[in-house]
Amino acid sequence: MKSPSPTYPSVIVSTSRNPHALSLVLEALRLQTRAPAEILVAEDGTDEHTKRVIEHMKPRLRCTLRHFWQPHQGFRKTIIVNRAAAVATGDYVIFLDGDCMPDRRFIADHLKLAAPGAFVQGRRSGVREAFVRLVNPATFDPLLWYIAGRLHGFRYAVRRWRPTVRVNDLSVVQGCNLAMWRDDFFRVNGYDESFSGWGYEDSELVTRLCNAGLTCKTVIGRAIVYHLDHPPADRSQVNENVSRFERTQREHLTWCEQGVSRGTGTYRR
Length: 269
Known about the structure:
The protein is of the alpha/beta class.
């Protein structure tokens, strides 16, 4: 039986050709009130600027930082995130997009929200693209940024005295801020790697978790992240991904054949 509280959290940060945003995310993770046990960067692509960001941050962090990568052949987040999750050593895994800067209490909040038989998704607000270069994780104040017109989604940007927690509300699924027990991720075989291109890979995973009997806890006012806005990704394959997602819903699937059990990825020390 799982302990009521995780003891060894792993953070998996997915990124693709956005080294500046990744540098802000890693700096925000360095400033956490509760450090993770390890950070695994899952890079969909092979960008030398990203590699330099990671090498710069390694000696500054209070935990191990590992870098996994694959050649860029379109949007293939599912594959590289699975490869990182396959070797994560934590009992609890927090998935974070490399363009979503976490609040200082992000990890501590997720660990308090964790419960056996459940997984947690947080919400996000956003820093407007024109102002991303001005962000400093050490001094960032969402209220001041909102007043200045630099931040949108203020409802999800501030910490609440009493957070709102919705149970099994799948109306909005955001894999940029998702946490679960590592065993539960493997229970459904992780992300479905047949998803290629942007869209619905996170919704499909969450649906399988719920089909397997897990409870989804959506929280507002805790585990906060700030999306660092950028031009939208290519969405030309979204219709195929919607079809895969709808099949999982229709057939109440709990397992994907092309999942985390398939293999290992490339790792840079």
